[in-house]
Prior knowledge:
alpha+beta, three-stranded mixed β-sheet, 2 domains, elongated
Amino acid sequence: MTTTMSIRELTRNGAMISGYDYIDIEDRKSHEYKGVFVSARLADDVKRYLEKKIRKAKQEERDALMRFAGAIETEERFRDKSIQEIRAMKAEEKYGQ
């Protein structure tokens, strides 16, 4: 079962959480979403899902960096150049200075 509760409700009566698998936590005055409470029964599943999602995001970031690094590495004209020199070369190509 799922429900929405305020932080105040959770702190006043902790026994309420035992009947729910998933609780959205929201500020009752501003209706701002604060987070989520997941029962111990589902905690491992949620943790595995989040770890997988974080690993995927990190891998995508690494892949993007490696594509950039590979492009620079394969071009002979960029070998033994500092980042400042490469930037200057790219600006010259782009703006024809």
